[in-house]
Amino acid sequence: MAIGEGQMGDRSGGPPEDVEAKFGWRYTFAKVMQDTTARWGLYVVAIVLLISAYTMIDSNLSRLTFGAVSDFTFAEALPIFDHPERIPPPGQGEENVPPAFHADGSLSNPLGTDPSGRDYFTRIVYGAQVSVSVGIASTLIGFVGGTLIGAVSGYYGGRVDDVLMRMVETVYAIPPLILIIVFTVFVSGGTPDITYAIIGVGITFIPVFARIIRSEVLSVREMDYIEAAKASGVKNRNIILRHVIPNSFAPVLVYATLQIGVTILIVAGLSFLGYGAQPPTPDWGQMLNVSHGYMHSNVWLSIWPGLAILITIMGFNLFGDGLQDALDPRIDD
Amino acid sequence: MSAEPLLRVEDLKTQFFTDAGTVRAVDGISFEVYEGEIVGLVGESGAGKSVASMSLLRLIESPGEIVGGEITYKGETIFGLEEGPDGELREREDMLTNEEVRTRIRGNEIAVIFQDPMESLNPVFTVGSQLREFIELNRDLSNGAARQEAIDMLREVGIPDPEERYEEYPHQFSGGMRQRVLIAMALACEPSLIIADEPTTALDVTVEGQIIDLVDELQQKYDTSFIWVTHDMGVVAEICDRVNVMYLGEIVEQAPVDELFYDTKHPYTDALLDSMPRPDRTVDELDPITGVMPEAISPPSGCRFHPRCPDARKACKRIHPENREVARAEGYPHRAACIKHDVFGSDYEESVPIENGAGADQQTPASATDGGRGESERTDGGEHDE
Amino acid sequence: MTVYIDGMVRKLPDVSRRYVLATGTAVSATAIAGCIGGNGEDENGEEDIIDPTDYDYDREEPDDEDAARESTMEYTQELERDEDFDPIHSNDAYSAQVYNLVFDGLYEWDAGLDLEPKVAVDMPDVERDGTRYLYEIHEGIEFHNGEELTASDVAHTFMAYQEEDSVNEAQYDMIEDAEAIDDYQVQVDLEHPYGPWELQTMAISIVPESERESEDDREEFNTNPVGSGPFVWSDFEFNEYVTLERNDDYWDDPEPYLQEITFVDNVDEASRVGEIRAGDTDAIADVPNDDWGELEGDDDVRVHISESPSYMHLTFNCRDDAPTGDPDVRRGICHAFSMTDFVESRLGNVAQPLSAPIPPITNDQWGFPLDEWHDEHYPEYDPDQAEELLDGAVDDDWSPTIAAPGDHRGDLAERIVTRLHEIGYEGAQAETLDFGTLLDQTVYNEDPSPDDFQAYLLGWTGGPDPDAYMYNLYHESQVGVNQAHFYEGSDSFHDDIAEARELADQDERYDLYEGVMLEILEELPSLPAYSFHNTMASGEHVRDLHAHPMVQQNPRPVSEYGNVWIDD
Amino acid sequence: MGLLRYTAFRVVQAIPVLIGITVITFILANLAPGDPVRLMLQGQEVDQEVIERVERQYGLDRPLHERYVTYMVNLLQGDLGHSIHRDRPVTDLLIQRAGPTLLLVISAYAFALVTAIPLGIIAATRRNEPTDHVSRIVALIGVSTPSFWIGIMLILIFAIQLGWLPSSGLVYPWRSPAHYGYSGYLELAFQTIRHLLLPMVALGTLQMATLMRVERTQMIESLQGEYVKLARAYGVPERTILRKHAFQVAQLPIITIVGLNLSTALGGAVLIEYVFNINGIGRLFLEAIQSLDYQLIMGITIVIGTMFVIGVIITDISYAYIDPRVTYGDRD
Fold first, then answer.
1. Cα–Cα distances in Å, from C258 out to B205, C58, C70, C73, C237?
2. Poorest-pLDDT segment among A32-41, C311-320, D237-246
3. Which of D223, D229, D234 is the best residue to mutate to test the B interface, defined by the most B CB atoms within 10 Å of its own CB?
4. Which of A64, A185, B208, D271 is least crowded, fewest Cβ atoms below 10 Å from its Cβ?
């Protein structure tokens, strides 16, 4: 069946299929920087990426070097940071402290603490790494899987195309959140974990990428140099890898950027329901899961992670929109 | 010719205000259209032909704007400015309002045939219903009568089985057939003037011939005036009575068609004619115009054609010639904007020729404008309105 | 009747809520709560752990009785009902909350967990060394179908559990026979003396024999029950709501004011609190700890609380192959974190810390010296001692898993693990699991390896008899059914538990249980954690509502101690 | 091909996908951890004999492919199996729970369409003016915010702080007013809307924002179309151009996206039903997952997948109905 009519890419907005293969990096970058909103998007993305890279290195280094979680992390060298997973010992530290601007708040916990007494600001900052790495990792899975399936399907056509496309449509037909939860719970044997979530999300994104790549391949396939390669006896596999895929890349790359935002949204939902990141990992969705129980007693616990998600996804969307505009001459705003 | 022209355009200026600067798409053109004649508007793409023709209907969209000049149609002012008490320009009181232009001019007085028949029809409505809608709107006919008129018109423009095809959608028509529909649309509104904006460009040559013959025939039958916008001198020769040659927003030559071809007064027209395939010449003799037309956002100083002009001299860089009458034929003036003609009284003859050879080919629009507009002298003493 | 509930599975229903019971005669309630959690006050003089008796509201009477008799109430339960309303087969507290209003008990509990006669006229006569009980019942009690409740209905009820292969059969399998002597006298014979009988087992809901003769009858009866209670079954939509109407011909006093009561559920606690704050429902069950203050401070809301026989425990894998088979390791873990601190900071409004394997309210019937035990035996937070005990007893790369459901128990597991990390056992991990998975991995795990779990956190709700806890949670016969610590214990440990169960003499039972409990505190096969209170919140317009210690008795709209009406 | 035949054609085309959905769910469900029988008998002392009896009863002793065939045969007769945890037929449960979910999803869509289309058009016609900027920012926030978070915030603001709207649950318009103690159908309708408002907005915001972005882009594109220029040149009033000439063309992609986004909306319903305590399929799904009620999980997944496929078919058919360019049949 014809789910999507080639417009599956529209899940999150503008159709990417007409993007021209005009893909000079500098040109693109310059165009993105020209647009005020896209530029802000880029800044946000850059900041979030930097934070996650920093916290990732920091937490890994401290684990490798010092062992115990309670040991020194570089972040703690800065007075505003605490360790994201440390619970203050009995008698020290307080639970559910409101943000600093609140009458009962304190400057040492600018955003307050969570119900276990952990510094919320630190946790929000460290939460970036989970969202971002999950976003990127699962988009990558979808991207690679989709590219392979789409390329093979589009290149060979016929039966292969039929079978692959039916499979892809089947995966697409089950709403991602539901498919991912079923996948996560069953495959993990009832102990969900962020790894399963990443793989699950990646799989549900394969169809979208496959569809885009396939339609690109269908147009690339007819081009002269492919004919020439075929005629000169180059193997199918090599044609696909060396010629077809690289030439179909541009629109998918744009789409991938936009998709990272969608991924973060879905993973937030998963973690909120308890099927994504598990405690005590600081993850925004997981923090919303915990803070949901405190929505009446400490509203701020729900507000901060939500804002963090909102800003991050907005950054990716703005940047993706800018990238799309830069690569797609159809509409100039 | 003594009669009042149907349409008079005087010093029309249309500009686009973009982030990159002001684009003077139409920069002070004047021409007339008399009843029953086909007037050509010729030039390369980007010369401002389409903007000029859309200006006549006040169909210029933001960021474009008509900034000066006067358009008079059958004695009514489609566009006209006057100086207010504080010296600022304001719209004249007798100028038609937007609503008046829409209801009294567009369609029923001046109709349009667009360039791209594939895109001009709305894909989700039947051909007939679109035709009928415009007829109803412009001719005050009842629904049924408009429908009958539409079918008659379709037959008139040579569409077989018009009753059936009336119910069909644009995608079921070929390009030529769609252009016939557009022609039927224009004629059915019974306007006095039809602006045909490159109506045959998108069609292949045989279809183009058929369409031109059809228009020729219908024009004589209905005695409608046409403004025929094209870049193709061949079409001009075939169909037009009088021709305006446009270059970079200006009319550089204006003459009855025969005069233009046999007594060309402007080097640009010459170049256009040389670049046109003609039965009396071999392919080898084709001589494309050197260089590319600069962008209207930064026109060259002096004569705008001078960077590409084989006859250019130093004076051409300086002097910006207006379109002056250099001869008269068939009762119409033959105007040209080139200072090599005596009426300009310039120092052309004494000026040193400029080498516009292979080097000029490479000249980018930007470098062609080095020195800027400030230096240019206008022979008409006109004001820059920036 | 007999009910046990596995403690407080918060967010969504789980497969196994259960029951078990006991009875009692006893001591009046004293608030032990405050004494256990250290000084009970922090520096600001605020109490960290609230005292439920502070929330004993005075009785209220309506000014306008007629208006009160017009009132209707919606009660939002905290979990979905299984929708089994036949007391013989029903196995969940939330269905029980409904059917307890439809049926009358032979005996019913008062607010101190004492049994009081209801259908029965008085306490039973005991004969044959505690194996024969004679009951006399009130005359003139009518079922909702108009038939009289007679002794044969009572006998039928006692026997039905076994005859119909009820899931509750195990709690009644000591009954040898029950028969009506005349219309108003019943004789029940037991196979052996049964300790908990008088404290809890004989509190059964009487069902009409005539309505449940065939399998089909019982099927119908299960979702359209007929009892003799103060409310009559009215309307029911599976998994949506149950509505009961006042029984205008109720045989006993008082007759309810409420004309109608509807039970709905909302399993999400934040959403439930939202409902009561927004005034969308009249009362909700189970107030979350952190919303207590918010609701208490809300002028439109009244909070209700009662101690309950709930019991949370941290139980260890005591098999020899597990490091936690070593009592030093168990004690080391217990010293590594502070239970008191956890309860004070996370659950201070809705729970109290424990010092023995029975909840304080159960002890109200028995009077074990819990304070003393706490001081002498309960492991307090002492990281140095923890390190000392663990050092050498386990390897440095020891990586115990503590499994728990994803609620407050998950938080506790996380807390314990963090503390173990702090003293250098970096490999310790908390595993929060769905309830079904958790049970599979722990209790139902026939051969649990040290990798499956070295400790787990679960809960149990019993009643006034210690047997509910001792037998189910510690006796070796219950391994793989209710627990999985595989604790072997001293020579007499399991025998004593079994013996206490089959004794009628409560003093002898006291002595046996004292030894068993002290051994548990000493050897720590499991660490008593905390006991949840039963909480409710109601709109201010809901009057004369009082929380009951047994969760299945709430919201208890009508009793000798309260008669709820809505004051609009 | 006529519209009817096209419909039949699309339905036939959907069959492999529907079968695919059953295969995927069946395979996933049979990877279920733990022993379903033990789950079923939880809390009871079981011996091997009982386990085997139950296995036979549920056919769990037979090979996977045989079980699949049995499952499919039953499925075709409308039997989706038996919920172990709830001890009820899965089909009954789904029928009972489908109403609230459909009510929620459909009203969220209605909300999204009713707001997105006018806003998109306004933004397109006032391009780069303040109105446009504001609505674009709203749309951007809309596509960047988790729906459940919007739900939580709406509850806190409108139900708790302001007390204007209920915080949870739905009032079903198909029940009698008497059930709720309402005076009549008018009050029933009013209360239905009051209860629906917050979850509808929470679930619909993402759809609204997505549709609005597409609507704006499409309208801008459509307004630049030659046919709009032509209509202007023939003196068609601007309102007619907007409402008829440009609008009709711009709606085509919207229809497709409405169908495809059904997948997001159905997934979002899980979260929204959880946050608002709505007894729909979404919450049933979460409960089924919690209790590993695998027959129920399979049933729900298949039904939701089917709902999506039906949704896409409906939108495809309406697309074909509106867009004359679709030549029924060779469109894929």
1. 92, 19, 7, 7, 21
2. A32-41
3. D234
4. A64
The model's pLDDT over C116-144, given as tens digits with 9 standing for 90+, comes to 999 999 999 998 888 999 999 999 999 99
Q: Which domains does chain D have, with CATH numbers?
A: 3-90 (no CATH), 92-322 (1.10.3720.10)
The architecture in CATH of the region A121-332 reads: Orthogonal Bundle (1.10)
Q: Which structural domain, as residue segments, surrounds residue B266?
A: 7-109+191-350
Answer yes or no: is B365 within a domain.
no
| pLDDT tens string B117-151 | 778 888 888 888 888 888 888 888 888 888 998 89
| Cis status of the peptide bond prior to B63, with omega within 30 of 0 | yes
Query: Which whole-number Å values give the CA distances from C232 to C90, C250, C261, C361, D303, in the listed order?
Result: 18, 10, 10, 32, 38
Three-class DSSP category at B21: strand
Mean pLDDT score, B283-308: 77
Task: Please report, for the domain that includes residue B35, its CATH number.
Answer: 3.40.50.300
Contacts by B281-284, CB closer than 8 A, 24 or more apart:
none
Chains that touch D (3 or more CB pairs under 8 A): A, B, C
Domain annotation covers residue B136: no
* Inter-chain touch B123–D227, beta carbons under 8 Å: yes
Which of A97, A123, A188, A191 is most worth mutating to test chain C (most C CB atoms within 10 A of its CB)? A191
Whether B30 is in a domain gets the answer yes
Domain ranges of chain C: 24-102+229-308+542-568, 104-219, 312-532
CATH of domain C312-532: 3.10.105.10
D234 neighbourhood in chain B, CB within 8 Å: 106-107, 111-112, 134, 137-138, 185, 189
Quick check: D292 and A295 CB within 8 A? Answer: no
- Closest-CA distance, A8 to chain C, in angstroms, reads 35
How many domains does the structure of chain B reveal? 1
Nearest CA in chain C to A189: C437
pLDDT in tens, D95-132: 989 999 999 999 999 999 999 999 998 888 888 788 88
In whole angstroms, give the CA distance from residue C173 to residue C176.
8
Best CA proximity match to B336, nearest among B349, B348, B322, B346: B322
Neighbour order of strands in the sheet with B332-336: B110-113, B193-197, B225-230, B38-42, B242-247, B250-256, B332-336, B324-329
- Which of the residues C5, C11, C14, C15 would you substitute to probe the D interface, choosing the one with the greatest number of D C-beta atoms within 10 Å? C15
Residues 6+ apart with CB under 8 A from A198: A134, A137, A138, A141, A267
CA distances from B192 to B99, B223, B229 (A): 19, 8, 17
| Chain length of chain D | 332
Q: B-side interface with D, Cβ within 8 Å? A: 57, 59, 102-103, 105-108, 111-112, 114, 116, 119-126, 133-134, 137-138, 169, 171, 182, 185, 189
User: Which pair of structure tokens corresponds to residue B155?
Assistant: 């037959």
* Residue C541 token pair: 């317009």
Looking at CATH, the fold of the domain delimited by C24-102+229-308+542-568 is given as D-Maltodextrin-Binding Protein; domain 2 (3.40.190)
Minimal Cα–Cα distance from B366 to chain D, Å? 29
DSSP string, D111-133: HHHHHHHHHHHHHHHTTTSHHHH
Nearest CB partner across the interface for D287, out of C12, C264, C279: C12
Alpha helices in chain B (DSSP H): 49-56, 98-100, 117-120, 127-139, 143-156, 162-166, 175-188, 205-222, 233-239, 257-262, 267-274, 314-318, 358-362, 365-368
C406, closest residue in chain A (CA to CA) = A274
Q: How sure is the predictor about A61, in pLDDT bands with cuts at 50, 70 and 90?
A: low
Give, for C133, the enclosing helix (H) or strand (E): strand C132-136
Q: C341 at the A interface (CB within 8 A)?
A: yes
